[in-house]
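Can't paste images in this forum, so I'm doing it all in text. The chain is below; anyone willing to post the predicted structure tokens underneath?
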Amino acid sequence: MVLPVPDSETEAEELLPANIALAARCPSARDALDYGLVILAMNLPYWHVRQTDHHELYVETASLARVREELATFRHEQSHWNASPLDHGLAEHPPSFYVPYVIALVMIASFILQNAYAPAYGVSGRMDAVGLITRGEWHRPFTALFLHADIAHLASNLVIGLWYGFLVNRGFGTMIGWMLILGTGVLGNMTVAFLHYPESHLSIGASTAVFGALGLLVAEGLAHRWHWRFTQRLGAILVPLVAGGIVLGWTGGFGDPQVDSLAHVMGFVSGVTLGLIALWMPPRKKAVISR
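Text version of the structure:
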């Protein structure tokens, strides 16, 4: 019960019922509310008197000792509680958490630069088998991953690539996962260039790396099933291979002359290869610090 501000302490005593005693004197209304909630949690009534410069809480005399003990415990707990900063959720993420956002921004910026400001950038960065092998332009397998023909091409690779990347990161870790995905794209583009050389072969797009991520997922499934018993292993390892092959065949663009299906296949093969190598490499031993 909240009582109005009295003109004096004598008037406050007249407003209060008999058999009650002062349990706490609080400097602010917020503190009085917190203490009042503690008393209510004890299933006890209390009276709140607003004085000119402070707030007073009264309880029944029979409950005074219990209430003061509970309030003392509450004050002790509050003094040892540190509120989390507002950016605690962001601070707990490692730098690798932001890698997919950086990749997406770089791809969008590259698309804008390629189409609006520097068309020559697209020519110098696209995949070119002759330029790679004859002229030694080794940047092309990497830069071609960030070039796209139109918005639909960019959007599809971004959406599917980020989703595959999320799945890959669950098994390989965020930083290693994205490094492997980029590695599959570069290795896939290089393989396609050597297969087409000495013919001229031009291509752009991140789909090589997207299908490389699919290959990494298949490699993770293969490595997981390899540890099964031998009688179960032979049939089990076919499951991720068949599943990955179905997805590759369904989304690989086979039969479409505008789609580089060979790059998709080589990205997928590169993903399976790099994924198995990464999964079967012995983990690094932690350094022992001498004291």
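Residues 187 and 287 are 32 Å apart (CA to CA). The chain has two domains: 2-79, 93-280.
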